[in-house]
Amino acid sequence: MFTGIVEELGEVTAVETLDDACRFRLRGPVVTQGAKHGDSIAVNGVCLTVVDDEGDEFTADVMAETLNRSSLGALAVGSRVNLERPTAVGDRLGGHIVQGHVDGTGEILDRTPSEHWEIVKISLPAELSRYVVEKGSITVDGISLTVVDAGRDHFTVSLIPTTLALTTLGIKKPGDPVNLEVDVIAKYVERMLGDRVAGEEATR
């Protein structure tokens, strides 16, 4: 489990394309400290397994399902990525509960700079809109953010200078894809209510 608090802005150093998968090598001096084979590291919000680590770099395999559901397939050598290690039991939950299981992708639609922050408008797939609410939480490229405004096909977030300086959202441009993970609690509530309604209807 992650919290959506990005630890560092890493970089893709190598990409190996396979028949139905991809192997990435990424540089991240912070997240590789103590990392070993089998550990998890979130890359732009996608939970990946460390296959190999050497110095300040690690290698991770990405299967077709992940490539199809996320924006990782667009990464190339030199791409910057948000990196986060899993949270440890007992640590403070600085963001919100993030699984690293991307629900879909959105696109940067517009950026409106201000003196001390920036409003970013992001497209929202129709099947995810019911999980996104004003002042709720959403994960964008692995970053835990608060929804400012929620529309039927888009939402906006307000970014502080720290987020702009230390994550990919500081360099993303309109048209660039981003990974989205909605609040898992909303999905569980929907499932439980759906099962309850179905059960009540079955007893009528």
Characterization of this structure:
The protein is α+β, with helices and mostly antiparallel strands and 204 residues long. It contains three helices and twelve strands, in the order βββββαββββββαβα. The chain has helices at 64-69, 161-166, 184-202; strands at residues 8-17, 21-27, 40-43, 46-54, 57-63, 80-84, 104-113, 118-123, 137-140, 143-150, 154-159, 177-182. It has a six-stranded antiparallel β-barrel.
Summarize the model shown.
This protein has 204 residues and is an alpha+beta fold. The chain has a 6-stranded antiparallel barrel with strand order 1-2-5-4-3-6. Strands 7-8-11-10-9-12 form a 6-stranded antiparallel β-barrel.
Q: What strand line-up does the widest sheet have?
A: 1-2-5-4-3-6
**How many separate helices?**
3
- Describe the sheet with the most strands: 6 strands, antiparallel, barrel
Q: Hey, roughly how much beta strand do the residues contain?
A: 35-45%
> What's the total number of strands?
12
Structural class by sheet pairing and helices: alpha+beta
State the end-to-end CA separation.
40 Å
Query: Could you name the ranges where pLDDT drops below 50 across 5 or more consecutive residues?
Result: none
* Apparent shape: globular
Strand and helix order? EEEEEHEEEEEEHEH
Residue-averaged pLDDT = 91
